[in-house]
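Box 3.1 — From sequence to structure: Endonuclease V
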Amino acid sequence: MKIHPIHPLNINPDEFISIQEKLAHKVDVSQPLYLHDIQTVAGVDVAYSSENGKELGFSHIAVFDLATMEVIERAESRGHITVPYMPGYLAFRELPLIIEAAKKLRNTPDLFLFDGNGILHPRKMGIATHASFFLGTPTIGVAKTYLKVGDSELNEPAQEKGSKTDIVVNGETIGRVLRTSEGVKPVYISPGNQIDMESSTRITLLLTGSESRLPIPVRVADIATRVMRQSWRKEYD
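Predicted structure (token representation):
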């Protein structure tokens, strides 16, 4: 697939905030996305390990045919992580590996789902949002843990599947606590870019099965990164 290099991937941390703020002005989460416009959906995840005190990352992208929910393409990458973990700057750690994997895809998926946040972020630039500019496609962030932004209050939804509560900051809904399966922990969703909150919610629910609270494409990518890590450990040992 074609990648849009909107900025270099090797950046001085002093520039992180200015890049996020500049891109945030270009984010559009007002567009509905309908199922008849989607044929393929990709799940993205990154896992970590260590090697002689250095961090190693494993990225996997699993592309599904929406009609059959079968995997039609996979791409992956592995490499050293050069950016230390800093809350709010996950994209700068993970984008080099994600972009390297995405370059290997033969076709461009209609939608990407990330294990991480979209606009549910202090500067509305979670990994799903930031990556959307490189990928040029709609994205959704589906996080397993809650990132508190500003003075937002976290209210648990009811136990039934599809129950939800909004995450509101300064009168704006920037995320949603969504119960994707009855009686299990919720996920924290937010549109990344080129898609609105309602479409993000509807599609996330549609793509979630009974095996996990995560949408199937994200779950498959998550499992694949763990397999990659285990395989590398066997080789390394």
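Summary of the box: The longest strand covers residues 40-51.
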